[in-house]
Amino acid sequence: MSIRDWPAGDRPREKLLARGAGALTDAELLAIFLRTGLPGRSAVDLARDLLQRFGNLRGLLAATQSEFCAAPGLGSAKYAQLQAVLEMARRHLDEDLRERDSLNDPLAVRRYLQSRLRGLDHEVFAALFLDAQHRLIAYEPLSQGTLDGASVYPREVVKAALRHGAAALIFAHNHPSGVPEPSSADRVLTDRLRDALRLIDVRVLDHFVIGEGRPVSFAERGWL
Fold this sequence. Notes:
The protein has nine helices and five strands; from the N terminus they run H-H-H-H-H-H-H-E-E-H-E-H-E-E. Strand 3 (168-174), helix 9 (184-198) and strand 4 (203-210) form a beta-alpha-beta unit. A five-stranded mixed beta sheet has the order 2-1-3-4-5, with helices on both faces. Helix 2 packs across helix 3 (43-54). By secondary structure, the protein is α+β, with helices and mostly antiparallel strands. The protein has helices at residues 12-19, 26-34, 43-54, 57-61, 65-69, 76-98, 106-117, 154-164, 184-198, and strands at 124-130, 136-144, 168-174, 203-210, 216-217.
């Protein structure tokens, strides 16, 4: 049966307008994005098939272009559309942090860092450069690959802080394994960076490790 033949209250678009996006299932949200299904399969049916194929909604959103386009009902146009939606969401979070004190809204910081780092298949070490009111100046990746004592150079981080005119920084890196537990190398590197930045009166407010679930905060553990 076509979605047009469903009761109005069950159609994803009408349901969203009446009850809000939060009332929809992952399959219903994805169906609105897809707009159409395949012969004999409604957009909701196709959405369920895709969620099963990729494991969940995040698996679909993190798929490479080749993986995405190989799925029935998808293609390069849909991939480009999805990447545009994801980038708009990241820019919305970016603008949100530029207007508020990051220390007073740690949830917004976590969401932003997860949008940037979670789901990557390689490790990235990055920093949020903040002004004196702890509002975001810039997000900048500082290193990619395996994180160890030689992969992030304190002098380069100091130069970046001066370039941005930052008063404080929040560090973050991801664990592609999905386990966000910090290693001893993570702690040693953070201490080295904090000591180097202290020489130019720039504070390190936190260091988040991003994986599955809730990011781990060094500040909450009492390590900063």
